[in-house]
Specification:
alpha/beta; globular; binds L-rhamnitol; binds zinc ion; TIM Barrel; five-stranded parallel sheet
């Protein structure tokens, strides 16, 4: 039997199984295709950026490990790699850029001097190709960030430099959003913190509030730019104290009406962001997710289709939060083919969302509402072995994306023809 026919038949059987539980697989796929995942550019070059050719990441406590050959070194190479990756992911998605990925025409431009013209090549390239661009000021990998402090730095001049960078980035993000006709999420993460126990936990936090207020002081239209702030528990070199902790940014986001970014690697190992989404959305209009996979710590492994990923997706669907949550990916693995890393992570995110959409949610929630906790457990467990795989395959087929492992063949030939020649 031809492969496509087989996929269609398997889908038809799966569709019927779901229909028996009152779930319409077609509706699930229709909703899935409206979701744009923000794919992070920094998986393509191990966070190197395009500011200084051949730059190695210093500071900031984030580090890609591994030396798989073929990483992107120029904007053209990176764009080519991203084009390859998105062609293997069903649906239309976004790209998440860091300010350090500017096009400076081979002339160094410092972070406080960047303008939209340095990102125009990205904007022009994204038009028609992607669902939008998101943005991040880069508060790491810079001589003025080497001692681990940026927006909360005790030195006023250094603080001011980073405030200017934050403002410049926000203006760029707004212009990106305007030109692409889709709001650009501008996410602020700073590495600020101490390796060892601080004597004063308060002063840096007060300085951070002041700096952030200055970064966000200019009026900005939420039609074009959405401000987001990202907390963290600890980092390499900030093991004892992080200025921008969860409580800090929760308070900041609530009091200033900003988005909060929940990164799945930024909490204690037994804490999960799936349980935080419904809490923070009681107090915030919108949030950003940095979906990652922390292995023992904030290790930024490629997103796997694990329990927590399913749980995150279920929360978004069960709570009807999809229109209030911006889904971004955040991992960097340099030990495997970087394009494969993107494809695996993004496809997993979509698979988890599809599985969540195929869950007989109202049936389970009705049981709970009636106090039928036995039924709730029984149906939740039954749901786990329902055939969502054939629906996923069919979805890929209908979106002209490779089915099952077929994407890997394409990555392997791209590796041979393009990556290995770098
Ligand atoms: C760092 C944060 C942050 C970065 C990116 C590159 O721990 O997760 O989001 O990963 O800005
Ligand atoms: Zn993150």
């Amino acid at each position: 039997m031809p492969k496509d026919k087989q996929i269609e038949q398997a889908y038809e059987l799966a569709r019927q199984r779901y229909a028996e539980l009152g779930v319409d697989a077609q509706v699930a796929m229709r909703i899935l295709q409206t979701i744009a995942i923000s794919i992070h550019c920094w998986q393509g070059d191990d966070l190197g950026g395009l500011e200084r050719p051949g730059a190695v990441l210093t500071g900031g406590g984030i580090q890609a490990t591994g030396n798989y050959p073929g990483k992107a070194r120029t904007i053209d190479e990176l764009q080519g790699d991203i084009e390859k990756a998105v062609s293997l992911i069903p649906g239309k998605h976004r790209l998440n850029l860091h300010a350090s990925y500017l096009d400076n025409a081979d002339k160094f431009v410092d972070r406080d001097q960047i303008t939209v013209k340095h990102f125009q090549p990205w904007i022009d390239w994204a038009k028609g190709r992607l669902a939008g661009l998101d943005f991040n000021p880069t508060f790491f990998s810079h001589p003025k960030a080497l001692d681990g402090f940026t927006l909360s730095h005790p030195d006023k001049a250094i603080r001011q430099f980073w405030i200017e960078h934050g403002r410049a980035s926000r203006r760029i993000a707004a212009e990106i959003g305007r030109q692409l006709g889709s709001p650009c999420v501008n996410n602020v993460w700073v590495p600020d913190g101490y390796k060892d126990t601080p004597a004063d936990r308060l002063a840096p936090r007060r300085r951070l509030i002041e700096s952030l207020d200055q970064v966000f002081a200019e009026k900005a239209d939420t039609k074009y730019v959405l401000d987001s702030v990202e907390p963290k528990l600890f980092g390499i070199g900030s093991e004892s104290y992080v200025v921008g902790s969860h409580e800090f940014y929760m308070g900041y986001a609530v009091s200033r009406g900003k988005l909060l970014c929940l990164d799945s690697g930024h909490f204690h190992p037994t804490e999960v962001i799936s349980d935080k989404i419904s809490s923070v959305l009681c107090f915030l209009d919108r949030i950003l997710l940095h979906v990652s996979r922390p292995v023992r710590w904030d290790s930024d492994h490629v997103v796997a289709l694990d329990d927590e990923l399913f749980a995150i997706a279920r929360e978004l669907v069960r709570g009807d939060f999809l229109h209030r949550v911006h889904i971004g990916l955040d991992f960097f693995d340099a030990s495997i083919n970087r394009i494969a890393a993107w494809v695996i992570g993004a496809r997993n995110m979509l698979k988890a969302l599809l599985a969540a959409m195929l869950e007989p949610t109202s049936m389970i929630q009705n049981m709970e509402a009636k106090g039928d906790l036995t039924g709730r457990l029984a149906l939740m467990e039954e749901t786990k072995s329902l055939p969502f795989g054939p629906v996923w395959d069919y979805y890929c087929l209908s979106k002209n994306a490779p089915v099952a492992m077929a994407w890997l063949d394409e990555v392997r030939s791209y590796e041979q023809e393009v990556l290995n020649k770098r």
